[in-house]
């Protein structure tokens, strides 16, 4: 990629900020007794040690792909590592609003998808954030109306939803269309396939009404459509090496990282411990994530949506930096991002310190780390 830093095109960032939803920190929930023992084995606890900040503000989405945050907060696994530092969580419905909150100091650390992280970094000319860890891979599917679409070639001429112009799934679908040799105007969505930008909340209703023929969507939206009769035509993980691609990162403001590295390390320790607990206790973790979603949205996911959605997501500590670099190149090719230098978007030293202490292998930054 070019050594010059430029900002993303206006189309990629012109998304209205959605309101912040304040979330009260809950007490330990389902499986809370088991989590303490399992988590202690996965890392080194700071116990009640006094850290450099009285409070850390963490943002995330009420989505299954953010289950590290959902479960880590629900079960007290992140708070445990913070000792006497208070965790103040907030939830978001869109990446741009979370980036705005990070830039404004309303949050210090965030769980977020790759495209918003790239946009935030490039818009600030590399001064706003760092990616300090991974959280999840996968959990994105192309689901379609089986009466209208039976093969991938049948997508031509159809209306397929993505969550938002320039978001991670939108870029992935535009790239897939391009590799098929089809043409679509990235900004309008018009072309050989009609790309219809539709909020995940209304995608199921849009599918039910027939206004879209399918969607390239994250979980649990994809499984909600399947529960309505849609068919999974493609799992995006099959398009990536080792079936892994980043869907959720952990970002931190550079100011907070500089001033409170011990707090960032504690949150990362909590994240690593949470992922270890999720993978060791998948059924309890699934129930915990669903309980958190019910608290946030007022409604839990039914089993026919929750179960297949959960199975398609991998919870990992590796940010899969090489796949983020590839996704950025896809956005450039689609015309949604100017050629940009992402060097410095990662600082994985705190995470690798935590992983080493836990006896886990260190992870790489694909040459995009702080020099």
- What is the approximate shape? globular
Q: Distance N terminus to C terminus?
A: 17 Å
What is the averaged pLDDT score? 88
Strand residues, percent = 15-25%
Number of helices: 15
The percent range for helix content is 40-55%
By helix and strand content, what is the structural category? alpha/beta
- Report on the biggest sheet: 7 strands, mixed
Radius of gyration: 20 Å
What's the helix-strand series? HEHEHHEHEHEEEHEHEHEEHHHHEHH
Counting DSSP E segments of at least 2 residues, the number of strands comes to 12
> Which runs of at least 5 residues are low in confidence (pLDDT < 50)?
1-46
Query: What strand order characterises the main sheet?
Result: 1-3-2-4-11-5-12
Index terms:
single chain; 371 residues; alpha/beta; seven-stranded mixed β-sheet; five-stranded mixed β-sheet; 15 helices; 40% helix; 17% strand; disordered N terminus
Descriptive account of the structure:
The protein is an alpha/beta fold. The protein is 40% helix and 17% strand. The strands form 2 sheets. Strands 1-3-2-4-11-5-12 form a 7-stranded mixed β-sheet, sandwiched between helices. The protein has a 5-stranded mixed β-sheet with strand order 8-7-9-6-10, sandwiched between helices. Helix 7 links the parallel strand 7 (159-162) and strand 8. Helix 2 (32-42) crosses helix 11 (261-280), helix 3 crosses helix 11 (261-280) and helix 11 (261-280) packs across helix 12 (282-297). The radius of gyration is 20 Å and the shape is globular.
């Amino acid at each position: 990629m070019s050594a010059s830093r430029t900002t993303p095109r206006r189309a990629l960032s012109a998304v209205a900020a959605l309101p912040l939803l304040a979330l009260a920190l809950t007490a330990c929930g389902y499986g809370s007794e088991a989590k303490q023992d399992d988590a202690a084995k996965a890392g080194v606890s700071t116990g009640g040690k006094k850290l450099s900040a009285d409070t850390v503000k963490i943002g995330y989405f009420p989505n299954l792909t953010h289950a590290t945050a959902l479960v880590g907060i629900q079960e007290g696994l992140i708070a445990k590592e913070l000792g006497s530092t208070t965790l103040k969580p907030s939830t978001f419905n869109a990446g741009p609003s979370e980036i705005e909150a990070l830039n404004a100091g309303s949050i210090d650390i965030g769980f977020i998808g790759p495209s918003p992280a790239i946009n935030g970094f490039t818009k600030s000319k590399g001064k706003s954030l760092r990616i300090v860890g991974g959280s999840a891979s996968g959990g994105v599917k192309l689901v379609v109306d089986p009466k209208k679409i039976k093969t991938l070639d049948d997508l031509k001429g159809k209306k397929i939803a993505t969550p938002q112009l320039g978001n991670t799934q939108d870029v992935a679908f535009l790239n897939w269309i391009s590799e098929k040799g089809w043409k679509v105007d990235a900004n309008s969505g018009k072309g050989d396939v009609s790309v219809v930008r539709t909020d995940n909340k209304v995608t199921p209703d849009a599918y039910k009404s027939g206004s879209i023929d399918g969607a390239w969507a994250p979980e649990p939206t994809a499984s909600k459509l399947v529960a309505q009769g849609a068919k999974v035509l493609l799992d995006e993980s099959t398009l990536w090496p080792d079936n892994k691609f980043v869907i959720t990162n952990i970002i931190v403001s550079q100011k907070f990282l500089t001033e409170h590295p011990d707090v960032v390390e504690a949150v990362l320790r909590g994240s690593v411990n949470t992922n270890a607990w999720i993978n060791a206790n998948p059924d309890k973790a699934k129930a915990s994530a669903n309980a958190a979603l019910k608290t946030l949205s007022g409604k839990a996911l039914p089993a026919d949506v929750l179960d297949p959605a959960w199975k398609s997501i991998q919870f990992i500590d590796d940010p899969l930096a090489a796949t983020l670099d590839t996704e950025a190149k896809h956005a450039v090719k689609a015309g949604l991002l100017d050629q940009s230098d992402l060097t410095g978007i990662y600082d994985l030293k705190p995470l690798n310190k935590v992983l080493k202490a836990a006896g886990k292998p260190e992870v790489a930054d694909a040459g995009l780390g702080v020099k």
